[in-house]
Design goal:
alpha+beta; 5-stranded antiparallel β-sheet; 7 helices; 5 strands; 15% strand
Length: 185
């Protein structure tokens, strides 16, 4: 006997969402709500006034009234201030609101991407340094500086290739060529 468990997405969402009822009075759009919507274009934000608590709620539709006979939504942030104001009085300020609106998964993905980018940069730097050490060691061998070449190739001492020095390399070369340096006193 084969048993297949089918997951109903609406049932799953009902566990974390709220069904729209006569206690929820949907309100129009406001400039601050439009700003919030621009922060998360994939969301479907709206505001309602709760009849019993006399509070306002910023929410996101899970199933809007046009999609279901039982609209389902998730509350994001509650506030008391007048929603007609430019920014309601006790609504989170814009920067914390951006963080609140940003989905956790997006935040995690961004953190992972930043860590991967940093690791890629470190790997690239190690690779460039390794290739440059070998290249510089070959050059030193041609000048009969075999001990120095072996030490450089083995990784003894600090070596930063010109590719990783940026503008500082040009500055040092200028100093060395004009003799205006105190590095070799």
């Amino acid at each position: 006997m084969h048993v297949e468990i089918i997951r109903d997405p609406r049932e799953t969402l009902q566990a974390s969402g709220i069904v729209l009822s006569d206690r929820h009075h949907l309100l129009g759009t406001y400039p601050w709500l439009e700003w919030c919507q621009k922060q998360v274009p994939e969301a479907r934000l709206f505001v309602y006034h709760h009849a019993r608590s006399d509070r306002f709620e910023l929410c996101n539709w899970l199933y809007s009234p046009s999609e279901s006979t039982e609209p389902l939504f998730m509350e994001i942030e509650g506030f008391q201030g007048d929603p007609r104001h430019l920014w309601p009085q006790d609504l989170l300020p814009p920067i914390p609101m951006q963080c609140r609106l940003r989905p956790i998964q997006e935040h995690v993905e961004r953190q992972v991407r930043m860590a991967q980018d940093a690791e890629s940069a470190r790997t690239r730097e190690r690779d460039i340094t390794g290739w440059a050490r070998k290249d510089r060691a070959k050059y030193l061998h041609t000048k009969n500086l075999h001990m120095e070449a072996e030490a450089l190739a083995a990784g003894h001492g600090h070596y930063t290739p010109p590719e990783l020095m940026g503008d500082r390399h040009a500055e040092l070369m200028e100093e060395f060529s004009t003799g205006k340096t105190s590095y070799f006193v």
